[in-house]
Amino acid sequence: MPDPSVGPLTFDPATAADERAVRYFRVLSEAGRLFAESFELQHTLDAVVQLTVPELADAVAINIVDDDGVTRTAALDVHDPAHRPLLEKLRDAYVVVRDADRGPRVFSHEAGFREHSAASWIAPGRLPVLEELGFRTSLVVPLVSHGVLRGDLVCHWSHKTRDFDAFSLALFEELARRAAVAIENAQMYRREKRIADEVQKALLPVELPAVAGYAFDAVYSSSERDVEVGGDWFDAFVLPDGRVVVSIGDVFGRGLHAAVVMSSIRHGLRVLALQQSQPDSMLAVIDEALARDYPDAAASAVVGVLDPAAQTLTYAIAGHHSPLLRTADGEVIALHGVGVPLGVRGPIKPNVQTVALPVGAMLVFFTDGLIESDKDITRGEERLHAALRNGVIAEAARPADAIKRHMLARGAADDVAVLTVTVRAAIPPRSQAAPMPAWVFRADDARSAEDARAGFIAFLRTRGVPDANYAAAELVFGELIGNVVRHAPGPITVEVDWNAVDPVLHVIDRGPAYDAQASLPADVMSESGRGLFLVSVLGEDFSVTPLPGYGNHARVRLRIERLERIASRKG
User: Fold this and answer.
1) Within 13 A of 60's CA, how many CA atoms are on the CB side?
2) For residues 42 and 409, what is the distance between their CA atoms, to the nearest angstrom?
3) How many whole angstroms separate alpha carbon 446 and alpha carbon 286?
4) SS3 269
């Protein structure tokens, strides 16, 4: 038997004694290539077993010792397909001998099949299977890497006798050595990837929001070719006034730094959404934060504000792939936007757009890994559009997961995040037990506007609000109505929703779009802009949503309490 300390074998075709040597080294060369190509252990071991049969043996099994110490048959193959069902009976029947003798062992099964010859490496109850298969010679070669037993390689032949010279045994030892290194690398890769996946999972939202009439689904898939944590994220959360903020993005680069930046952006958006009503304003603040805290970082992102009451999405894009809107009839529309990635600090700032979301529509947000698996982004986009036109995927219980599985059937080369929002039904009707008061009048009808103000005060009284507690609410009401009267000719609708803890005032107009400014005008003597500033100061969660083809929807949560709440707090 050759000295195991001798390095890898070399082969000179000019000195090859026989064709067997050529076959042996061809198998070794191909096995080395397969082991180097991938860290996906199962695929590699299956390929090597199929390569070895029938080139070197009639049947081969590779058994490995898992991280938990359990031995399993990871790959198995036989030359005669008719013997495959019988060979399967040997799966997990092999015993990896963990003693000091770790050299190759040859077992000859003569007529009568002496059980003691095989009892050390296979379960005794499976010995009749070997006899039924007609195997007469077996070779067991331990798989050892860095002094650790990783498993063993078992080969079977139907010959009654099989001669193993030093060259043959050295060949199988070399094959086993390379397989052991590949197994060790794959197990290390799997452990590191599992840790990275757990870290990534901890950085993403625990659950998606539950909103009446809307269905949210999301999926994250890490790269199968990299063990480092990535910078992709998705998020969706409900604001106190019922709107939903959705975001998706990708920090450029990989590793812990990308994950830290990603987490900072995602959580920063959650805080900003309580103070900013427009997606572009949120992105602008994040961009400034990156410049200050992570000057070398950059990320693409989409931020949207979903308004279930108005059935609209207001969104802004910073260098990210356009979200897609699938209509109820299967048309797929790209929601384009202008804006450079965060951290680039270019001259083009994200613009804000608003789209209607009719019943049956589905929004699809995704990161670039979803469409880059083909190495052709254009082709990937075409495949994604075709997949969304497929009603089966769109109507799946988990559409985000269905999209991911369809697009990445051969695995993901990069991290992938997919978030879908499906409009199942219009906003449900208000509770009949607590109807929502509403007033409708024209902007030039001052008498009706004053009647609406009086009706608003009367409504607060009916809900147990003390006089001293609703003065601010009345001022907010007056400033919102005054702003609309000045800038939005036509009908005005005013509604008060107090089915939650706090009342929310809604004002819907038919005028041009305007921003909910949260600061005083630059000219301190100017009257313009002060009203909206007061609304933002005296109320909570003030926002203005453009309504496509209609006007604007302003809302603000009022800071007032019912008498019973005040009494209970004092008590």
Assistant:
1) 22
2) 17
3) 43
4) helix
| pLDDT tens figures, 282-295 | 998 899 888 888 98
- Least Cα distance to 421 among 513, 307, 502, 282 occurs for 307
Question: How confident is the model over 251-267, as a mean pLDDT?
Answer: 81
- As a whole number of angstroms, the distance between CA 261 and CA 504 comes to 35
For the record, the structure tokens of 507 come out as 């004002």
Phi and psi at residue 518, in whole multiples of 5°?
-115, 20
pLDDT confidence bin for 195, thresholds 50/70/90: low
Establish if 369 belongs to a structural domain: yes
Quick check: is 140 in a domain? yes
Residue 316's alpha-carbon distances to 123, 187, 188, 355, in angstroms, are: 65, 43, 42, 12
Q: What is the mean pLDDT of residues 401-423?
A: 84
Residue 213 in any domain: the answer is yes
Secondary structure of 40-96 in the HEC alphabet?
CHHHHHHHHHHHHCCCCCCEEEEEEECCCCCEEEEEEEECCHHHHHHHHHHCCCECC
**Could you tell me if 177 and 268 lie in one domain?**
no
Which residues make beta-bridge pairs with 493?
440, 508
| Secondary structure letter of residue 411 according to DSSP | -
Assign 517 a pLDDT band (cuts: 50, 70, 90). low
Mean pLDDT in residue range 354-382: 86
pLDDT at 228 over 60: no
Yes or no: say if 30 and 37 are a contact pair by the CB < 8 Å rule: no
Residue 170 is assigned to a structural domain of this protein: yes
Q: How many CB atoms lie within 10 A of CB 496?
A: 20
Could you give the percent of the chain with pLDDT greater than 70? 78
Residue 177 pLDDT > 90 = no
Query: What is the model's pTM?
Result: 0.58
Same domain, 29 and 177: yes
Question: Rounded distance, CA 480 to CA 141, Å?
Answer: 83
Residue 22: pLDDT over 50: yes
Angle between helices 399-407 and 377-389 (to 10 degrees): 140
Give the pLDDT confidence score for residue 203 in this predicted structure.
Answer: 65
Q: Are residues 321 and 354 in the same domain?
A: yes
281: Cβ contacts below 8 Å, ≥ 6 apart = 272
Answer yes or no: are the C-beta atoms of 554 and 506 closer than 8 Å.
Answer: yes
**Residues 185, 208: one domain?**
no
- The residue range of the domain holding 453 is 438-570
Q: Do 515 and 404 have their domain in common?
A: no
